[in-house]
Amino acid sequence: MMHRPIDEPAPPRAPRPHPADAPALWPDPPEPGRVDPAVLCALLARHGWHRRGGAPGRYSRWTPPGPGTAGTSLLVPESGSFPDSEDLLGEALTALARSASPSARDVLVALAVPSDEISWWRDVPSGPAGTASWTAEEQLRTAARRLLLAGALAVRARAGYYGARHRRPAAASLEGVLVGPAHGGHRLTAHLPVPTGRPLAVRLHQALYAAREAVDYQRATGGMDAFDGAVGAGVSHELVEAVITLVRGTEGARVGVQWSPAAGVPQGCAASAEPVEFSPGDLPVLREAGARYLRAEPAVPVRITGTVVRMRRSGPRGAGTVRVRVLAGAEVPHVRMSLDEEDYRIAGHAHLVGLPIRVHGRLESRGGFRRLTDAADVVPVQVDEAERDRLMKAMQENLDFFEEACSGD
Q1: What pLDDT shows up at residue 129?
Q2: What is the mean pLDDT for each group of 10 consecutive residues in the chain (409 residues)?
Q3: Region Disordered: what ranges (predicted)?
Q4: What's residue 393's pLDDT?
Q5: What is the C-alpha separation between 204 and 231, in angstroms, rounded?
Q6: Which of 258, 203, 257 is nearest to 231 (CA)?
Q7: Which of the chain's ends, N or C, has fewer CB atoms near its CB within 10 Å?
Q8: Do the beta carbons of residue 246 and residue 278 sit within 8 Å?
């Protein structure tokens, strides 16, 4: 390691950048001309910023939440009709982009992507300096995702138990959701873009209130009937299990939905509503409701069209089991079924020549709607040459899945 001689002058240091020249924490704030001052004020108030006066009728002054922020403020014009409105908005947006306050990021996200906000709170002990344990943050994120997925399932259809049904498109609908950091494992906020996410926000909002009312009814009367009616509002086995995950290990938990100020309040919903609260005392009722939904969901008669991806039987003849990738007829990716010898032979021959099959049966709730019982009337389905070539190629790439399709026939 080399040292500079004592008598050698120190090299000049680069000057420290002025705070105004520091890089923005938010890479690309919205254009001032595309921001409604009323929407910005509503978002600042929502995220805890404090209004500290200003020139009445011209602009308002806002300071961020939390200690140590007395020197930081935003000037926001009351409307865009004043000559300096766009300049004030530009300065306010730049200050937000440079702010280290977590709430500033949430405001900028909501401005950049008009969205409804869903927030989760968990009352859990904090670690040193407001830190959270790894498991606490993971539980918060897991519970939030499960609640969003339960809401997305309810948008697709109403059911007490979904299992594998609708799961793939419901999960795909969450791809546009934006999620912020989990603040100390206590709070998490998701932004649902209005064009694609509002049906989910509305359904989850209604389902959570229906679940809260059903729990209150059971605790007051001992009856579980309210949970049956709550299915129509979007309550399901998946939703109550998500709420259990959110509440377990806490002193209480809350979920709140706030509508995008730019898009307005959806029809049939309150402009402002308190977050829905659940406590550890609700867990026995929620567990009973989840088990009730699991037991009560009936089997569904279906006619499935799909491609055979796996076949197995114990000998060269007799009945066997078949796994089918579903193309149409049910909102599940795959089903298993037991076929008699003749239907098993037909399924095997259809697979060998690259044709899907059509089969009637009952999609059973046991196992998550992944099994078809009373399967019968297996017939090959004709497809065009291009689709047949694609199916044949898929079969050749998955030969290890095809076992004893037509042995002895």
Answers
A1: 57
A2: 46 40 52 84 87 75 73 77 79 84 82 90 75 79 96 95 93 90 81 93 96 96 95 96 95 94 87 90 97 92 92 88 92 93 91 89 90 92 70 53 40
A3: 1-31
A4: 62
A5: 12
A6: 203
A7: N
A8: yes
What's the CA gap between 305 and 308, in Å, rounded? Answer: 10
pLDDT confidence of residue 69: 54
Instruction: Give dist(CA 60, CA 38) in Å, integer.
Output: 11
Joined tokens for residue 241: 């299990």
In DSSP terms, 115 is beta-bridged to 193
Q: Looking at residue 82, what is its pLDDT?
A: 74
Kindly report the pTM of this predicted structure. Answer: 0.78
Q: How far from 384 is each of 132, 356, 389, CA to CA, in Å? A: 57, 11, 9
Give me the domains of the chain, ranges plus CATH numbers.
19-102 (no CATH), 116-125+132-296 (no CATH), 300-401 (2.40.50.140)
Q: How many alpha carbons fall within 13 Å on the CB side of residue 264? A: 3
Distance, in Å, from the CA atom of 76 to the CA atom of 271, rounded to the nearest integer, reads 23
Instruction: Give the span between the Cα atoms of 238 and 149, in whole angstroms.
Output: 8
- For residue 324, give the amino acid letter: V
At 94, is the secondary structure helix, strand, or coil?
helix
List helix spans (H) across 258-384.
Answer: 283-296, 341-352
CA angle 260, 56, 31 (to 5 degrees): 45
Taking a C-beta distance cutoff of 8 angstroms, is the pair 74, 99 a contact? no
